[in-house]
Automatic annotation (TrEMBL):
It comes from the Bacteria. GO terms for molecular function: metallopeptidase activity. Residues 205-260 form the PDZ domain. It holds the Pfam family Peptidase_M50. Belongs to the peptidase M50B family. PROSITE patterns: PDZ. The lineage of its organism: Bacteria, Pseudomonadati, Pseudomonadota, Betaproteobacteria, Burkholderiales. Keywords: Hydrolase, Membrane, Metal-binding, Metalloprotease, Protease, Transmembrane, Transmembrane helix, Zinc. CDD domains: S2P-M50_PDZ_RseP-like. Its cofactor is Zn(2+). This is Zinc metalloprotease.
Length: 460
C-alpha cells in the first residue's frame, strides 16, 4: 500500500506539472503574463515568487492551474493590457488552451519510447491451449503455436499485404484487443515452437461486437495463457499428488489416454475429474528423466465460489519462455508515437461508445484503480512504470480535449464558436455552461470512485 500511494502521488505530480507546463510555456511565448503556476488546489503548503510568477503547491493534489493576467477576472493596469490573455488573438488563446493536453500526449510518446529503450522481459508469443468454444479454438490455434506476425483488416475484405511483427505475448494481446474493439478481423502467422511449419490463422474478431476491454472479452477471444510445459512443480506433503507417487519435475504425457498438450490442458483435465459428488481416479502416463511411468492419481473435490472441480495439490506447469523486448533510439521513438496514437484513438472510441451506451460505464476508473496499478507497475520495474505512466498521460490528454465546459476542450469549443460567429460567447452563457460542466465532471468523478470501490469489493 505505501508503494501504491507513493507511486500514485508521483504519477499525478508528473502529469499535472507537464500539463500545466504546456499552458505556461505557450502563454509566455505569446507574451501573456502568468501570475501563478499551481500544482494542486486549496490552501498552499509551499509557495515561492520567481519573477512575476508565483509558484505554488496546493494541499489537494488532484489537479493544477496556470493563472494568467485577464480582464475578466480582475482589473488590469493600462500599461499591461497588451499582456492580458483576453486581449490576445483567437489563435494565440487557442494555442495556450491546447498546449496542456498536447504536452501530455507528447509526454506519452517520450515515456513509451523510454520504456522501449530500457526494455522488458516479456513472455514469448507461444500460445497455450485455447479456451473451449472461443474464437481462437475455432480458428485452429493449438498449444505450442508461436505467433510471429499479425495483420488486421475489415471483415469480408482482403487483408493488407504488410504484416506487423509480434514481439511478445503482451504485444499480441494488445494487438488482438485493439482489433476486437475496432471491429476488425485479424490474421496470425504462426509456426511451431522451433520456428518451422508456418501457417496463417484468421480470427473473426468482428463477430464479437466487442464493447468493453474486460475479462469477458479476453475469454471470448480465448488465446489463453502463455505456453507452459505440462510438468509438475512443488508437491504438497500428504496431498493427492504425493499419495499417487508424483514427483517434482515429472512431465505428464497423457491422462486417461488423452494427450496432454501443455500445462493449461493438464489443469483442465484435473479440474474435470469431478462429476457432481463423484471424483474419478485418473491414469497418468508421464516421463521422469529417461523413465516412462504410469500412475493412478485420485484428485480431491474442491468447491470455491459455487464451482466444483478437482485438485491434486501440486504446482502444474513450467515457467514460460521469456524474451527481452528492447528497441533502438529511432525504432523506440517510432513505436512510442504509434502506441500513443493507438491508445488515444482507442480511448476516444471508448468514450464515444460509453456515451451512446455501446460500452459499459464500468470502464471509467478513478484514483484508487490508478494507485493500485501504479504500485503494481513499480514493483515490476522502471520500464513497466513508464509504460503505465504513458497510458495515464494519454488518458489525461484525451480527456482534457473533450468538448466539455471546465475542460480545455470546452474552451477550445468556445473559441471555435467565436471564430465562426466573429464574437465571443456572452458571459452569462459562459457561467451557465461552466456550472453545467462542473456538474458533469463531479458526476464522472463520483462514478469513477464508485467503480474503484466496486472493483476492490469484487463486484466488477
Amino acid at each position: 500500500m505505501p508503494n501504491s500511494i507513493l507511486a500514485f502521488l508521483v504519477t499525478i505530480a508528473v502529469l499535472i506539472v507537464v500539463h500545466e507546463w504546456g499552458h505556461y510555456r505557450v502563454a509566455r511565448a505569446c507574451g501573456i503574463k502568468v501570475l501563478r503556476f499551481s500544482v494542486g488546489f486549496g490552501r498552499p503548503i509551499w509557495r515561492r515568487q520567481r519573477g512575476e510568477t508565483e509558484w505554488v503547491i496546493g494541499a489537494l493534489p488532484f489537479g493544477g492551474y496556470v493563472k494568467m493576467l485577464d480582464e475578466r477576472e480582475a482589473p488590469v493596469p493600462p500599461q499591461e493590457l497588451h499582456r492580458a490573455f483576453n486581449r490576445k488573438s483567437l489563435w494565440q488563446r487557442s494555442a495556450v488552451v491546447a498546449a496542456g493536453p498536447l504536452a501530455n500526449l507528447l509526454l506519452a510518446v517520450l515515456l513509451y519510447a523510454a520504456s522501449f529503450w530500457i526494455g522488458t522481459q516479456e513472455p514469448r508469443a507461444l500460445l497455450g491451449t485455447p479456451l473451449a468454444s472461443s474464437v481462437a479454438e475455432r480458428a485452429g490455434v493449438q498449444a505450442g503455436d508461436w505467433v510471429r506476425a499479425a495483420r488486421t483488416g475489415e471483415p469480408g475484405e482482403a487483408m493488407p499485404a504488410d504484416w506487423t511483427p509480434v514481439a511478445s505475448l503482451t504485444d499480441l494481446r494488445w494487438q488482438v484487443t485493439r482489433a476486437a474493439l475496432n471491429g476488425q478481423d485479424m490474421e496470425l502467422e504462426v509456426s511451431g515452437p522451433s520456428g518451422g511449419g508456418r501457417r496463417v490463422l484468421r480470427l473473426p474478431l468482428a463477430e464479437l461486437q466487442a464493447g468493453d476491454a474486460d475479462a469477458k472479452l479476453v475469454r471470448r477471444i480465448g488465446l489463453g495463457a502463455a505456453y507452459a510445459e505440462p510438468l509438475l512443480g512443488e508437491i504438497v506433503a500428504g496431498g493427492p499428488a504425493e499419495r499417487a507417487g508424483l514427483r517434482r519435475g515429472d512431465v505428464v504425457l497423457r491422462v486417461d489416454g488423452r494427450t496432454v498438450a501443455d500445462a493449461a490442458a493438464l489443469r483442465a483435465l484435473i479440474r474435470s475429474a469431478v462429476n457432481g459428488q463423484q471424483v474419478a481416479a485418473q491414469q497418468w502416463e508421464l516421463r521422469r528423466g529417461a523413465e516412462l511411468l504410469t500412475l493412478v492419481v485420485q484428485p480431491v473435490r474442491v468447491e470455491e465460489r459455487g464451482e466444483v472441480f478437482g485438485r491434486i495439490q501440486a504446482a502444474v506447469g513450467g515457467p514460460p519462455q521469456m524474451d527481452e523486448v528492447r528497441y533502438g533510439v529511432a525504432d523506440g521513438l517510432l513505436r512510442g508515437w504509434e502506441r500513443t496514437v493507438e491508445v488515444a484513438g482507442l480511448t476516444l472510441k471508448m468514450f464515444g461508445r460509453m456515451l451512446i451506451g455501446e460500452a459499459s460505464l464500468r470502464n471509467i476508473s478513478g484514483p484508487l484503480t490508478i494507485a493500485d496499478f501504479a504500485g503494481q507497475s513499480v514493483e515490476l520495474g522502471l520500464a513497466y512504470y513508464l509504460g503505465f505512466l504513458a497510458v495515464v498521460s494519454v488518458s489525461l490528454g484525451v480527456l482534457n480535449l473533450l468538448p466539455l465546459p471546465m475542460l480545455d476542450g470546452g474552451h477550445l469549443l468556445y473559441h471555435l464558436i467565436e471564430g465562426l460567429t466573429r464574437k465571443p460567447i456572452p458571459e452569462v452563457w459562459l457561467e451557465r455552461l461552466q456550472r453545467g460542466g462542473l456538474a458533469v465532471i463531479l458526476m464522472m468523478m463520483t462514478l469513477a470512485l464508485y467503480n474503484d470501490v466496486a472493483r476492490l469489493l469484487g463486484q466488477h
